[in-house]
Design brief:
The protein is an all-alpha fold. Helix content is about 50%, strand content about 0%. Helix 1 packs antiparallel against helix 3. The chain is globular.
Length: about 140
């Protein structure tokens, strides 16, 4: 999880800070200001290869997972990413136990949060360490 998160954070942030990559590649995903589940994997092919395919391969290789463990991990990671883009944060949702959840990622897709909350899909420690963390404000009725 840490290996995948590290790869995702630095490449995701690079896709935001490099004007060429943002304009021609990552902005495709950010056409979605309101997140929805199927939008999680709505991205440019280069981004899909760089963040998802290569990131997954690096995590698989360096963690020493078996093929069965890798299948479970990548299936779980994909479901979590889809859940994080759903826009819903149900209390009974097992994917929402992580600090990086739907509410956290929704901020990233808003105009005010476009330069924050790059971490994906599990933890938020890179955002906290490198000053790109934007806290989730939950309003209670």
């Amino acid at each position: 999880m840490v290996i995948l998160d590290t790869h995702q954070y630095f490449f995701h942030r690079w896709f935001h800070t490099n004007k060429f990559l943002y304009k021609h590649v990552h902005s495709h995903h950010h056409r979605l200001y309101v997140t929805y589940a199927f939008g999680a994997l709505y991205n440019h092919w280069l981004e899909g290869i760089t963040l998802d395919t290569i990131g997954g391969a690096v995590a698989f290789y360096f963690s020493g997972m078996s093929v069965r463990e890798g299948m479970f991990f990548f299936s779980f990671s994909t479901m979590k990413t889809v859940d994080d883009h759903s826009g819903y944060s149900f209390p009974w949702d097992p994917f929402q136990i992580f600090s990086n959840n739907a509410a956290y990622h929704d901020i990233h897709h808003q105009p005010k949060g476009i330069k924050s909350n790059f971490s994906q899909p599990y933890f938020t420690f890179w955002d906290r360490l490198l000053g790109t963390y934007s806290p989730v404000e939950v309003k209670k009725d």
